[in-house]
Amino acid sequence: MEKNGKMFVAPPKDGSDFKELFKQLAAMGAGRPVGIDGFPQGPWTPELLAEAITQIDSNRAGVDLRTVQLWFQDNDKGISPSNINWLARIFGCDDKEATSEWLLELSAAQSRLTAKRRDSKKAAATATPPDIPHRVTVENHSQLPGDWAKRTRGRSAKKGFSLAKQSESLFSSGSPLNLPASTFAGASALGFLSYIVGIHSVTYSRPDGVVKQVGFLWAPNWTFLFMVLLPLFFSFVIELLIFWKQDARFRLLAQADPFETTGRLWMRNVEEYSNTYWAVFLICVLFAGVFQWIGVCLIPLLEGGDDYATSWGTIAIVQPDLISVPVEIVFTGLAYLYMCLCFYLFFAGLILLHTIIHDFWRVEEGLVLRLGGEHRREGGEIRMRIMRGIFRCTIVGVFVAICMKVQSSYLSSDGGDIVTWLLYDLFSVAYGDHQAANSFGYRMPTHYSSLLVAISACVVFLYGSIRLSGGSRFREALWKMSAVVGLLFATYLLIDAFNGFSILLIAVALVATYGLFDPEFALPRSGKSESNQGVL
Prior knowledge:
Blueprint: E1 2-3, E2 6-7, H1 18-28, H2 46-54, H3 65-72, H4 81-91, H5 96-126, H6 138-141, H7 146-158, H8 163-172, H9 178-197, E3 203-205, E4 211-213, H10 224-256, H11 262-271, H12 274-303, H13 315-318, H14 325-371, H15 376-411, H16 418-431, H17 445-467, H18 472-493, H19 501-517, H20 526-529
Antiparallel strand pairs: 1-2, 3-4
Helix pairs in contact: 2-3, 4-5, 8-12, 9-10, 9-14, 10-14, 10-15, 12-14, 14-15, 14-17, 15-17, 15-18, 15-19, 17-18, 18-19
C-alpha cells in the first residue's frame, strides 16, 4: 500500500515485541519512498533510518546513529518514548491517522519487550541446576553431572579466543580511522626513536669507495610504506568490509528472506578461515619477524659479517661510535616486531577480501536458485563496488611490494642515496651513461618477501575477477583493471633488471595511482556511468 509516495504497512497487531516488529518492517522498507515501478527502494539500514528521522521538521535534536544501530541488533535494548514518536512518523508515512495507529502499536510492542526482558531475568535468577554449586570453578568443573558439564564446557569453548574474529573486529569495530591511524602512529614513533638514537640519517663508506646513505628515514620500506601505503590499504579494506557487512549483504538477503539474520552467518564465514589466520600469523611473526631479525640483525651485530648489505639495522658494525650494539639490538627488535604485526594485518586484510568475494558468490548462488534473475540489478551494483575495492587494495598491495624491492635493490647498488640512484637511472638512457653492476653478492631476503606480498595481492584480485563475473560493463572495467594490475606486477619484476627501469616504474605508477581514484578508467562517461551501474 502507498501513502504520500511511501511504502505503507498497516500495524500487524499480532502480539510481536518491538525487536520482532522492527526487524520485519525494516526488512520490508516500510516508510521508504516508492520508486517509479511502485516498489520501495530497498530495506532500511541504520544510516538511512537515522537520516530520515533527523530530517523530520519538528525533530530538532535528531537521533544518534548508534541508537538506531541498537534497534537493528539482536539485544535487549528497546526504544525511548520520544523515538517512538519519530519512528511512528516514519512508518505512518507522515499520515496523521496512520501515525497514530503506529504510535499505539510501537508503544505496545515496547511494553511487550520490557515484560519479556523482565520475565527472562527472573527465570535466569531462579533457574539453578539441581545439586550444582552456584559458583563453578576450575576445580569442581570436572565433577559436574554429565549433561550440565558438557553444556558448560561448550559455553566456555564458544567464549574462547578466536584469532579470526579478533582480526575481523580490528577492521570492522570502532572508528574506520583507528587501524590506519595506529599504523601511522607506530611508524612515526619509530622515526622519532631513530632520531633519538642517531640513525635517522647515516652515511658509510663501502669497501669499494661508494658512500651510501642508509639512515632509517631514508628507507622507504620503513617510512613511506608504513606511513602512507599500509594506512591506505587498511582504509580501503575497512570501507569495503563495512559496506558488505552493514549494507550490501543485508540488501541481497532481504530480497529472499526479510527475517534472515546476517550477522551470525557472516561471523561463521569468518570462522571458517581460522586455520588460515593462524598460519599467516605464525609465518609473519616467526619467520618474517623473529627469524629474519635474528639472521639479518642480531647475529651480524653480535658476530659481524657481510652477507647482508649494511643498513640502519647493522650500522653499529661499521660505525660503533655512532650507536652501541645493545641499543641497536633493542631498536631493531622493536622495529621488526612492529613490522611483522603490521604485515600480519596486511595479510589478514587480504583474507577478509577473499571472504567477502566468496561470501558474495555464495549469497548470489542462493538468490539465483530462489529468485532466478530478479536480483541482477541490485547484485550488479554491489558486484561493481566490491570489484572496485578489490582493485584499489591490489594496487596498494603491489605498491608495498615495489617499495620493499626498490629499497633492497638500492642497498646492493652503487647509488649514494635512493633518490640519486633513481634519478641517475632515469637519465642514464637519455645520456647513454651505463655503469657495470656492482660486484657485491649480498643476500636479499626482502626480494623474496616482497614477491610473496605482490603475488598474494594479485591472487586475491584474480579470485575476485573469476567469482565476480558480470555483464558487459563489468567485463569492460575488469579488462582495464586487469591490464593495470598486470603492468604493475611486471614493473615490480623488472625493478633493477635494466638501465632505465625507473622510467617504466614512474609511468605505470602514475597510471595505477589514477586507478585508485577512477578504478573503471571511465573518463569520457563519468556523468553517465553512475546512472547505468545496474545495467550489467
